[in-house]
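Changelog note: in this version the structure field was regenerated for every chain. One regenerated record is shown below for reference.
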Amino acid sequence: MLTATDIHLRRGDNTVLKGVDFHLSMGEMIGLIGPNGAGKTSLLRCLVGLERPERGEIRLGDKSLAHWPARALASEIAYLAQSAACHWPMAVERIVALGRLPHLGSWQSPAATDVAAVKQAMAATDVAHLRHRQATALSGGEQARVQLARSLAVGARGLFADEPVAGLDPGHQIQVMELLRGHARSGHAVVIVLHDLTLAARYCSRLVLMAEGKVAAEGSPAEVMTPGNLAAVYGIAARIETHDTGLLVVPAGLAHSR
């Protein structure tokens, strides 16, 4: 679906991405992991067209991302920003319905398909019972699920989410991760930034481990989640166990304390 080749990105005097290659296929759920400042969010913003790299190329399908019209790109790629809060005193249902805007012409009323997409997204993210509540009156975790519902309502082929489970309780974290994995398996493509290494290992089909603006390791969770990689990139000693639901990654201390 999408490929990125030799991506370099600078902010002022700081080079935040250094020759990054990336590829995404339909049906995949890719986790971008790495310590703070590794370049995960910067890469995600480049992949969705919010930042333009100074060098390299990103292609969506057979066309350069820079050549996609804005409305067409918005219907192909849905983006959920980190800690996206609801600042408008609007009903939850109206917030979620904003995800359908790329499919509507000027002053065009939503069709039955748009209404159905909004209802399905709210049900999937467990916010249907909040549909008439003002978004600004919700808790942070509820707002996060509303924003995820808005992104899902787009119906895009690709969903790119920056820390979509941050601030959620454990039950809703698992619910969201299962939802996103099912979304990918149904024929979509998902890229998420994560800090929870166990969630990344359990739910993602492929991981990209970043460090200092570069890709340090890439592959299946078992290939990436090794004691050596985690010590080198995070500076931690980790216990990695195989469970029937996938890998469990437990930080046990700083690597140098061993």
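Spot check on this record: The longest strand covers residues 14-24. The radius of gyration is 19 Å.
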